[in-house]
């Protein structure tokens, strides 16, 4: 059976690797040589699991969505990452990475953020572990997600609004990498998704794999078997998706559906559907699918959701799509917004806009009545209320 995990050179099929400036070679190499030893050690596992349990509030519930199931004619379970401390899946990764940074002797933490969820999660663990925290965030996103900026500041982080490019996630990542180049020895860069140079995509996927680990146990309890027929998750860089599917990659009974941001439509010129639109290129240290023009310049992505408008995609997902293991659907802004309102009205759960894209995939799949579907609600919708209310008033 095909193995969908990373190989020893840091590649998933044709995608991945580490394409980095010379100055960062030492710290990326250090991370690569030590991350598995550290995260597989008993003392790391013990501290990580205890914090996930006592601080984050895991395991997150697997909730049977009765009315949503009725509507789509199958059995839909929601993996409730929105109920974690800080309101999203991002905290799973930041807890793990700060424990890793401590063991590597780093003193200063930097991060990039789009929707602000990863920024808040990073600021949270830095406050917890008494570490200096610098977060880079595009100016456009600072305005769109001002509550999250205020949270980061309250937690003691310094937030730098980035004014280059489109002033969104890509540009924030560029600035974070620049900072890292200036302080390579004492700084750990907590990347928030399954992107960046090897070993980051694998590191983040492993830390997030607690999601699928829990799904297996919870499904066994509820359905008498530990795997669903469908796994559905939204994908920007792809960390909540990687965590959701990690322990199921080799189980061919499980269909994987990834929902990316279609924006105003895949052919509209305003989209972030990287798997549909991207060509192979290099972005932020990895070879993957990238939205680019004929000259290889990166195209600016667009999505109503600040967490999905990234012009690349995690190499793990680029590979799963290329080899046909995952089905990738582009969900447009309006489909995501309608699906968010549908969830609030049928189940009383307000999802993050990112997660609403995963919900948007439900209407595009023909289910059988006995299909078991697990859909990850990657975050809660507090940060998106302005967008939701504006949409509600326009209708």
From TrEMBL:
UniProt pathway annotation: Amino-acid biosynthesis; L-tryptophan biosynthesis; L-tryptophan from chorismate: step 5/5
Keyword terms of this UniProt record: Amino-acid biosynthesis, Aromatic amino acid biosynthesis, Lyase, Pyridoxal phosphate, Tryptophan biosynthesis
Cofactor(s) it depends on: pyridoxal 5'-phosphate
Signal sequence residues: none
Pfam families referenced in this protein's UniProt entry, alphabetically: PALP
Catalysed transformations (reactions): (1S,2R)-1-C-(indol-3-yl)glycerol 3-phosphate + L-serine = D-glyceraldehyde 3-phosphate + L-tryptophan + H2O
Domain Tryptophan synthase beta chain-like PALP, chain residue ranges per copy: 57-379
Modified residues (N6-(pyridoxal phosphate)lysine): 90
InterPro entries xrefs: Trp_synth_b_CS, Trp_synth_beta, Trp_synth_beta/beta-like, TrpB-like_PALP, TrpB-like_PALP_sf
Highest taxon of source: Bacteria
EC number, UniProt record: 4.2.1.20
Cellular component aspect of the GO annotation: cytoplasm
Keyword NADP attached: no
EC primary class: lyase
Subunit comment: Tetramer of two alpha and two beta chains.
Family: Belongs to the TrpB family.
Function: The beta subunit is responsible for the synthesis of L-tryptophan from indole and L-serine.
Name used for this protein in its record: Tryptophan synthase beta chain
Lineage: Bacteria, Pseudomonadati, Bacteroidota, Bacteroidia, Bacteroidales
This protein's encoding gene: trpB
């Amino acid at each position: 059976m095909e193995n969908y995990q990373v190989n020893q050179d840091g590649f998933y099929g044709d995608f991945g690797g580490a394409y980095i400036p010379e100055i960062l070679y030492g710290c990326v190499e250090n991370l690569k040589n030590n991350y598995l030893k550290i995260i597989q050690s008993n003392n790391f596992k013990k501290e990580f699991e205890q914090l996930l349990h006592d601080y984050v509030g895991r395991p997150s519930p697997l909730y049977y969505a009765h009315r949503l199931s009725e509507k789509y004619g199958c059995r839909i379970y929601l993996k409730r990452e929105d109920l974690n401390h800080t309101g999203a899946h991002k905290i799973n990764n930041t807890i793990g990475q700060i424990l890793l940074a401590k063991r590597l002797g780093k003193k200063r933490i930097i991060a990039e953020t789009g929707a602000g969820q990863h920024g808040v999660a990073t600021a949270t663990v830095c406050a917890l572990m008494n570490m200096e925290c610098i977060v880079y965030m595009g100016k456009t996103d600072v305005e769109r997600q001002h509550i999250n900026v205020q949270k980061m500041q309250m937690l003691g982080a310094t937030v730098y609004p980035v004014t280059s490019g489109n002033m969104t996630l890509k540009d924030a990542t560029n600035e974070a990498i620049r900072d890292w180049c200036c302080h390579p020895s004492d700084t750990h860069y907590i990347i928030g998704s399954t992107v960046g140079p090897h070993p980051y995509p694998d590191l983040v996927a492993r830390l997030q794999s607690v999601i699928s680990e829990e799904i297996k146990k919870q499904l066994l309890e509820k359905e008498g078997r530990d795997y669903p027929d469908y796994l559905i998750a939204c994908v920007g860089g792809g960390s909540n998706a990687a965590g959701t599917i990690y322990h199921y990659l080799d189980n061919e009974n499980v269909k994987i559906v990834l929902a990316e941001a279609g924006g105003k439509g895949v052919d509209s010129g305003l989209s972030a559907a990287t798997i549909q639109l991207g060509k192979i290129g290099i972005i932020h240290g990895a070879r993957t699918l990238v939205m680019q023009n004929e000259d290889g310049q990166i195209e600016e992505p667009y999505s109503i959701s600040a967490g999905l408008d990234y012009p690349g995609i995690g190499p793990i997902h680029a590979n799963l799509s290329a080899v046909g293991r995952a089905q990738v659907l582009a969900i447009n802004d309006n489909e995501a917004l309608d699906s968010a309102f549908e969830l609030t009205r049928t189940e009383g759960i307000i999802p993050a806009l990112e997660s609403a894209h995963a919900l948007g995939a439900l209407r595009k799949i023909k289910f059988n009545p006995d299909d078991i579907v697990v859909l990850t609600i990657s975050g809660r919708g507090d940060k998106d209320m302005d967008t939701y209310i504006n949409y509600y008033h326009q209708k």
